[in-house]
Write a structure and sequence with these properties.
Pfam families: GST_C, GST_N. Belongs to the GST superfamily. The protein is an alpha+beta fold. It has two domains: about 100 residues, Glutaredoxin; about 110 residues, Up-down Bundle (Glutathione S-transferase Yfyf (Class Pi), Chain A, domain 2). It contains ten helices and four strands; from the N terminus they run H-E-H-E-H-H-E-E-H-H-H-H-H-H. A four-stranded mixed beta sheet has the order 2-1-3-4, covered by helices on one side. The longest helix is centred in the middle third of the chain and has 29 residues. The radius of gyration is 18 Å and the shape is globular.
């Protein structure tokens, strides 16, 4: 039995089975990336619900694993050289899980870098921009009278969606075959409906992206992972 006592987070969220991957998350777009990857890869894991309130993500126990106080985070009891490893940042988790299993990074070294390229695109562009769009359209930012922030993020969302739409021409998945890049991208696309922003970003004018998103959530693992741990 693995010993996870060196990880203080396990005091607040005890592991029932310390021999499997411990996931600390919530089914937000970033949280879904981790749970869907685990489901797609068929890895044994245990999901712990971490609320976004300060009592959870800013607790000493959670900060001991992720000092950036964001979900998701994981502990893998069977990390490099057989030693436990804790990780945060959803993109890093995706790359780690793919490399651990030798899956979802394409067939060739070039595929691997193309997949990582699109993960970085999501991490640096699509996720942050759509998150800000949601803030200024649905949440507290919607109360700001100055229209410029809202317009900026709507326009940037449109630009990024056009980049994706063009890049999907003639292919089902962003690097040609299903990969962690698709797992990184699609949960954020799905968030546009929650933000009530589909019309604002011209969703109906996109040629390839809507079918791409539908194809993604038609995968059984994606459907399972989209609500783990349950809200």
């Amino acid at each position: 039995m693995a010993d996870l006592s060196a990880f203080p987070i396990t005091r607040k969220w005890p592991a029932k089975d310390p021999s499997v991957i411990q996931l600390y998350s919530l089914p937000t777009p970033n949280g879904q990336k981790a749970s869907i990857a685990l489901e797609e890869l068929g890895l044994a894991y245990e999901a712990h619900r971490v609320g976004l309130d300060d009592a959870n993500v800013k607790s000493p126990e959670f900060l001991s694993l992720n000092p950036n106080n964001k979900i998701p985070a994981i502990i893998d009891p069977d990390g490099p050289d057989g030693q436990p490893i804790g990780l945060f940042e959803s993109g890093a988790i995706l790359i780690y899980l793919a490399e651990k299993t030798g899956r979802l990074l394409g067939e060739t070294p070039a595929d691997r870098y193309h997949a990582i390229q699109w993960v970085m695109w999501q991490m640096g562009g699509l996720g942050p921009m759509l998150g800000q769009l949601g803030f200024f359209v649905k949440f507290a930012g919607a109360e700001i009278e100055d229209p410029r922030p809202r317009e900026r993020y709507i326009n940037e969302a449109k630009r990024l969606l056009k980049v994706l739409d063009t890049s999907l021409e003639g292919r089902d998945w962003i690097i040609g075959e299903f990969s962690i890049a698709d797992i990184a991208i699609c949960p954020w696309l799905n968030g546009l409906a929650f933000y009530e922003a589909l019309d604002l970003v011209g969703w109906g004018d996109l040629k390839n992206v809507p079918a791409y998103l539908e194809r993604f959530y038609n995968r059984p693992a994606a459907e399972r992972g989209r609500n783990i741990p349950p809200m």
